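Why should sequence recovery work at all? Because a backbone constrains its sequence more than one might expect. Tight turns favour small or flexible residues, buried strands favour hydrophobic ones, and helices have their own preferences. The token representation captures these environments compactly. In the example below, the structure is given first.
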């Protein structure tokens, strides 16, 4: 059975700096996205993902992001198990860990 992989903020930053084309799928609620976000991103709240999965390309490398990595792990598992996405990652620790480790100027909540 296919599965997703965990990706640390440093690993994600390295992929972005190397110019790797990634879909940053943010599954937080709109009000959370207004507080802080990695840009550019694709925003689909977790509760809408099942209905909107066709908006995503299963052949693109997708990194799921949420506040602490819990909802995004659910999203990553859903994309791999139910929709056969080829390469899916979960941002371990979410946007909060990204801010703590890589971007201290980013708003945390």
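From this structural description, the recovered sequence reads:
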């Amino acid at each position: 059975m296919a599965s997703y992989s965990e990706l640390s903020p440093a690993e994600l930053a390295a992929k972005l700096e190397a110019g790797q084309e990634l879909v940053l799928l943010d599954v937080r609620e709109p009000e959370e996205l207004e507080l802080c976000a990695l840009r550019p991103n694709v925003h689909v709240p977790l509760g809408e993902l099942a209905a909107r999965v066709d908006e995503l390309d299963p052949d693109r490398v997708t990194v799921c992001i949420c506040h602490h990595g819990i909802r995004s792990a659910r999203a990553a598992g859903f994309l791999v198990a139910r929709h056969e996405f080829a390469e899916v990652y979960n941002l371990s620790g979410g946007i909060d860990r990204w801010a703590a480790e890589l971007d201290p100027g980013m708003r945390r909540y």
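A few observations help interpret the result. The first helix runs from residue 9 to 17.
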